């Protein structure tokens, strides 16, 4: 696994046309943030901001995961979404 594969997966996820569940979107987002920024380093948003809170929780669940592991999981998840879309 390398940076190039990760960047290709980042481009591929933007090309997905099929429906992607909110849970899958959060997973992809959380692994992207972990791979690019590391552990969540921002304070939790207020519970009244449901979308931001869900994104923060998803990212924060990956705390301690290496950037390389997050890249691997992100790539695998994008590949899974592409396969599901292809049928």
Q: How would you concisely characterize the structure shown here?
A:
InterPro entries: Acyl-CoA-binding_protein, Acyl-CoA-binding_sf, FERM/acyl-CoA-bd_prot_sf. With 87 residues, this protein is an all-alpha fold. The protein contains four helices and no strands.
Approximate helicity band? 55-70%
Profile the largest sheet.
Answer: none
- The count of helical stretches stands at 4
Number of strands: 0
Gyration radius over CA: 13 Å
Computed structural class? mainly alpha
How much of the sequence is in beta strands? under 5%
What would the principal axes of the Cα set say about the shape?
Answer: flat
| First-to-last CA distance | 25 Å
| Poorly predicted parts | none
The averaged pLDDT comes out at 94
Task: Walk me through the structure.
It comes from Vicugna pacos (Alpaca). The protein is mostly helical. Helix content is 69%, strand content 0%. The chain is built from 4 helices and no strands. The chain has helices spanning 3-15, 22-37, 50-60, 67-86. Helix 2 runs antiparallel to helix 4 (67-86).
């Amino acid at each position: 696994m390398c940076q190039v594969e990760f960047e290709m997966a980042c481009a591929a996820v933007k090309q997905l046309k099929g429906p992607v569940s909110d849970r899958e979107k959060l997973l992809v987002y959380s692994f992207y943030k972990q791979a690019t920024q590391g552990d969540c380093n921002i304070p939790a948003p207020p519970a009244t901001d449901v979308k931001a809170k869900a994104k923060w929780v998803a990212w924060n669940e990956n705390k301690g995961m290496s950037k390389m592991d997050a890249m691997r999981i992100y790539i695998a998840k994008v590949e899974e979404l592409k396969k599901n879309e292809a049928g």
